[in-house]
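retry 2 of 3: previous attempt timed out while embedding manganese (II) ion. Reduced batch size to 1 and resubmitted. Inputs unchanged:
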Amino acid sequence: MAIIDQPLRAARTEAAATHPAGADPSIVAWVERLALHATPDEVVWCDGSKPERARLIRDMVDAGTLTPLDSEKRPGSYVARSNPEDVARVESRTFICSEREEDAGPTNNWVPPSGMRETLHGLFRGAMRGRTMYVMPFAMGPVGGPLTRYGVQITDSPYVVVSMGTMTRMGAEALAQIGPDTEWVRCAHTVGAPLAPGEADVPWPCNPTKYISHFPETREVWSYGSAYGGNAILAKKAFALRIASAIGQDEGWLAAHMLLLKVTNPRGRAFHVAAAFPSACGKTNFAMLQPTLPGWTVETLGDDIAWLAPGPDGRLRAINPEAGFFGVAPGTGRSTNPVAMDTLTHDVVFTNVAMTDDGDVWWEGMTDEVPAHLTDWLGEDWTPASSTPAAHPNSRFTVAAAQCPTISDDWDDPQGVVVDAIIFGGRRATNVPLVSQSRDWAHGVFMGATLASERTAAAEGTVGELRRDPFAMLPFCGVHMADHWQHWLEVGAKADAAGGAPAIFQVNWFRKDADGRFLWPGFGENIHALAWMLDRIEGRVEGVEGPFGVVPAEGEIDHAAAGVDDAAWASLFGLDKAALTAEADDAAGFLDSYGTKVPAEVRDGLARMRADIDAL
Ligand code: GTP
Ligand code: SPV
Ligand code: MN
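retry 2 succeeded.
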């Protein structure tokens, strides 16, 4: 059954009456059926204009959803405080509803599409009563580009409209691209909080029941009950990763949870690098890296998602499908990420950060000095003596990519950029070296497949617990994970045949000493590892083979210049046979959980690692 089974009324409904001229009939029909089912008070088609955004923001200030910040300190900027029960993506309520369970794989919550449609049908009925239904046509990627895809999201949350307006190219231009032959992704969202006649609204409506449901075959997303981040900005993780991983598998390209940057070496050669780190593991920071090594420059193309597709010459090209950054606030400060701080000077919507008494924002790690008094993310008085953080650990900023001072002039090139290197990295206190290179593409796929990270407070689960997060895609893969690996192998083999797949590396900025202190300073000093990687591509530096592939030969990285002494440097590459054997056993168990679908190349990667460990 369809989620929306209302008959199309002969009479023109509000939705049909107000749709912009030229809207494709397939969109109008979908919107009309949804409006009849969810029964909003009105339907508004968004044009993505500045006056529209200004109007929505004014309404949200009036409703108490947004608090304006001081117009001198942070012009055009606002703070939103969410419902304390709605502060992050909820993986346990995220579903992949493919026709066959084996196409979702063991690491997704699978529900048969018919059952989920029935559930959603019930939940969406009347869900928008008393609210406005907004219709947002949007482009993922530069409008009109060859890699660009289109979608339409409906929502009853003005906060989500403003967020989508920053995070995507939303509005009239995108709508004009959708014709009768355009495949567009249907994204239906409601906060699930209908209002009875006369009932007062709350600043952050949501519902304790949440469903973030994906139908990969029919390219649909249905989200109920949350207005936060990836639960509600359906263009982001839901479309650009979960649905896009299914589209990419059908069409021969890759949807990746990767930042994208351009780095120019002292000899003036530019490289493009895509890097997959799990959530809250440093993508935004690395994308905005300020090199401490003279002569190197880094420019930003994207901080979270990249689509990699073979170009006309067969080499892999990448675009950032997004148009904004939805970045983690805590830990972002002048000393760690000055570029982000400069990006955040105006026109930002902050969510769940703390406010200073003079109308500015604050979060843990923004300044060394902690303000004597704040209003915390819950709206309560806060002092340094308080036992809870002032900002929620997953508090975030939403800001346009174009206002990032290091944005690269090719960030919105519709053709994308040729990818020279791919990096995988997680948060690992032990075992994994600072940097290593894969022997070849297949070994790189093994590295990606066995990527693991220790959980942070920003994620569900126990802090510090290790979880395998293949390709940093565990919560974001809309297909069977092992099929995704096989797909990576095939795409890489084709790129190799066409004259060169990107080189693949692994990094770990988070290794700790016995006292729990980071051995590596990270942030701007990460350029040392990046420079070694790119020098490897040029054949300028030597490496040494080991269990993790090729690590820098003695003296190839000037660790003293990064402020790291010889003992710490040795520890960053330390190989403990017993710990590594346990690591390999853990990886083996993890691969086994995917059963017979695990590609032989990935199993070979583990066999080689075991042999290298045994030889230690
Ligand atoms: P998502 O938006 O959730 O996908 O996160 P992300 O991968 O973009 O992570 P982000 O760059 O926001 O960093 C998250 C946390 O990691 C912040 O607290 C950073 O300060 C910290 N971090 C980033 N880079 C480094 C680094 O090189 N070393 C250390 N020690 N911490 C880092
Ligand atoms: C992540 O969790 O990886 C994010 C935030 O980038 S969200 O958009 O909420 O998924
Ligand atoms: Mn992310």
